[in-house]
Amino acid sequence: MTKRGKRRCVIFLCAAAVILVTAGIVRVKLHPPRPLHEQIADYMYHSRTDPKLEYLVEKYGDEFVATEYGSIQSTRFSDFYVNVEWYEEEKTYKDDYIVYLRKQELESILIPIAEPIFGKCKLFVISYGDCPSNYGKDTSALELLSASEEYPLVQVCVYTTKDTNQRDEDMQKWTEALQERRYFVCANIDYLSSETYDKVEQKSYQYINGDDDYICRGSAFISPDNFKWRFGGWEEKND
Predict the structure, then answer these.
(1) Residues forming beta bridges with residue 190, ordered by sequence position
(2) Rounded to an integer, what distance in angstroms lies between the CA atom of residue 145 and that of residue 98?
(3) Contact, 226 vs 178, CB < 8 A?
(4) The organism sits in which domain of life (predicted)?
(5) How far is CA 48 from CA 40, 148, 158, 228, in A?
(6) d(CA 20, CA 106)
(7) For the residues 222-229, what does the mean pLDDT come to?
(8) Res. 39 pLDDT band, cuts 50 70 90
(9) What is the spatial distance between Cα 191 and Cα 178, in angstroms, rounded to a whole number?
(10) What is the architecture of the domain spanning 100-236?
(11) Per-domain residue ranges of the chain
C-alpha cells in the first residue's frame, strides 16, 4: 500500500471512529440508561412471568398474555386470570385453566342435578385448586369432578331464593346427589332475596356480582365418602 493509500485509510478510520462516537453520544442523549431500580423491576417481572407464560402456551396453545402486574390472562375468556404456581417438590408448574375450558360442560352436568333440589336457581362453576400437572387440554369434565386429590378441583356456587328453613334438607339432598355420582367438589349454597337473586350474574370467571348480599350461606367439601363444612356450618348475614 502506498503512503497516500495508508494516509487515506487512516483518515477513513478516524472519520469512522468520530461518527461512531458521535452516534453513541447522540443515542445516550436520546435514550439515556434507565434507572437501576427500573432495570431491576423489569428483570424481576420477566423472570417471574415469562416462565409461567411459556408453560401455559406450550400446554394449551397461544391464548395467553401477561399483564403489566405479572398476572396471566386468557385471551379466550374475557376477564379471566389464570392461576399458575410453581411446586418445588415436583419441580413443575400447576394451573387451574382446564376447569374454565370445561366450565360450560361442568355446568351442564351439575345444573340438572341441582334444579330438582333447589328449584329455580343459578349455578356457576369456578376452580378451587390447581390441577395435577398431568391434567391438560384433553382432561374431561368428569375427570375434574372425580379427581381424588387432597382438595377438590371444582367449586360449585348455587344461588337460590328458597326458604332458609329448608337449608339442612337441601344440603343433605345435594350431598347425597353428588356422592351418589362419586363427585368431589367444594359446594357453596347462597340463599338470597328475590331482588338480589335477579342481580346475580357471573360477569367474569372468578367473581360473581351480589356474592356478599345473602340471607344465609354454607360452604362444604363434599367427596364420595365424606362431608366437611369449610367454616363450621351455616352463616347468616348480619344486617
Answers:
(1) 159, 217
(2) 12
(3) no
(4) Bacteria
(5) 12, 30, 36, 36
(6) 64
(7) 96
(8) low
(9) 20
(10) Roll (3.10)
(11) 36-97, 100-236
